[in-house]
Amino acid sequence: MTINQGWTLRPSELKDASQIMALDELVWDEQTTPAPLNRSSREEFLRHSPPGSQLVAVKEGTVYGYIGFKPSTSLPSNSHVLSIHIAVHPSCQGQGVGRLLMDAMKELAASRSIRKLSLRVLSCNEGAVAFYRKNGFVEEGRLKAEFFISGTYIDDILMAYDMERKYI
């Protein structure tokens, strides 16, 4: 689907793997993830992030952002929840790309009868926490001093978006 300012949002395809991996290298660091991604190969990336498990934001053939999603667990009793993560190229942050991806994710979740989107974010990643709150996510829990990164204990914040706005 093509939307404003020339952005196309679509499910990821096999051809996007290299660009998504490159984007991951730019976005995920010790302020945004508790450990390096350490993917040994494209094949390993594809095992954990197969085509269609992300929505990508593309402009002029380049992937500038994505939102990944997967079931939180394999339990049937938990099938109404998707766990998500989002990455936007630093040059596009603050320009609405993340919001476009988040809105598209909510539409996809609604079409699949998903009731809840959940995520985890490091407390030191204040920009991401603010972004999630701006997009309707609320803190459901906090694991105090869950990670020790660069000499500092960091909380892991559990956040969620209620698709039906009834229980959060």
TrEMBL record:
MF GO annotations: acyltransferase activity
EC supergroup of this enzyme: transferase
Keyword Cell membrane in annotation: no
Alphabetical keyword list: Acyltransferase, Transferase
EC code: 2.3.-.-
InterPro entries in the record: Acyl_CoA_acyltransferase, Bact_Acetyltransf, GNAT_dom
One matching Pfam family: Acetyltransf_1
Domain (N-acetyltransferase) ranges: 7-164
Coiled-coil intervals: none
Protein name (database record): GNAT family N-acetyltransferase
Organism: Paenibacillus enshidis
Biological classification of the source: Bacteria, Bacillati, Bacillota, Bacilli, Bacillales
